[in-house]
Amino acid sequence: MRKILEICNDIKPATDAEIIEAEKQLKVKLPDSYIRLVKEQNGGRSIHNAFPTKVATSWEEDHIQIDEFHGIGGEGMSILDSGYLIQEWELPEDIVLISGDGHSWVALDYRKRKENPSVIYLDSEMEQTIELADSFDEFLQGLYTAEYKEEEESFEIWTDEEVVAGFISDDDHSFILTLNYIYEHPNPLNYKMLVEEHLYHSLHHQDDERQEISALYITHFHQKNILSPEFLVKAKKVFEEKESLKVYLELLK
Question: pTM of the prediction?
């Protein structure tokens, strides 16, 4: 089998006992090629970052991006989280999520057969479902590396007043634009205190959608090492207390 995962010595191979227990919990027969994959390394980042599609998606006109594969248990996202995530994101039953971490997912589709499932792509925001491959073997063979050219653009600087206005706006679009501005800023640490103050405040917003947007961006800023350990402790506590935000706990590990 071609190499799929970047080597990570911290991620151990899945054991036969873990695989058997996973199949028992999920009530499915996992594809042999997936089992071989997690026996080499139990999930992790994908060497190949793309899979072709015949229709446009929120990623690109002709492909989706594949960042990593979920293993069985352990740290990070796991296929054992599928049941909870399906309920949280209102996804179809009888699928197993093998990649994705938010609004878009790649899944094994067991709706038509209980063995040798096809592989599908789901985008909950666009209400889009695409069949990618008839089997996991075919899916692995179709993975490839897409090269992305970085466009040189001048970065438009906002005033502090504009940033604060975006944070306190009741319009979700303005709120997201502000978060994206800071995320893409050459020196995002300049806004660390503002980010922590307003994201924590928004975790307690009366609107559930604003809470989820805030939780998602906390995970994004965490990946860029912008947030302080003290803030992350407070955020995790809120995630644990709010049922709708528990899914984001895995993304902070």
Answer: 0.61
Tokens of 145: 């590396």
Helix locations, the chain, DSSP H? 16-26, 32-40, 82-88, 136-142, 160-168, 172-184, 192-202, 208-223, 229-241
Sorted by sequence, the CB contacts under 8 Å of residue 70 that are 6+ apart come out as 43, 76, 77, 78, 79, 81, 97, 98, 99
Cα dihedral across residues 52, 57, 58, 60: positive or negative: positive
- Give residue for tokens 């895995």: 250
Q: How far apart are CA 14 and CA 113, in angstroms?
A: 25
For helices 192-202 and 160-168, the axis angle rounded to 10 degrees is: 10
Span 54-98, pLDDT tens digits: 999 888 899 999 989 999 987 678 999 999 899 888 899 999 999
Specify whether the CB–CB gap between 107 and 120 falls below 8 A: yes
For residue 134, the number of C-alpha atoms closer than 13 Å in the C-beta half-sphere is 0
- Name the residue ranges covered by the structural domains of the chain: 16-142, 160-252
Directed axis angle between helix 32-40 and helix 16-26, to 10°?
140
Query: Is 149's pLDDT higher than 80?
Result: no
CATH class of 16-142: alpha beta
Dist CA 91 CA 84 (whole Å): 10
Residue 123's pLDDT band (cuts 50, 70, 90):
very high
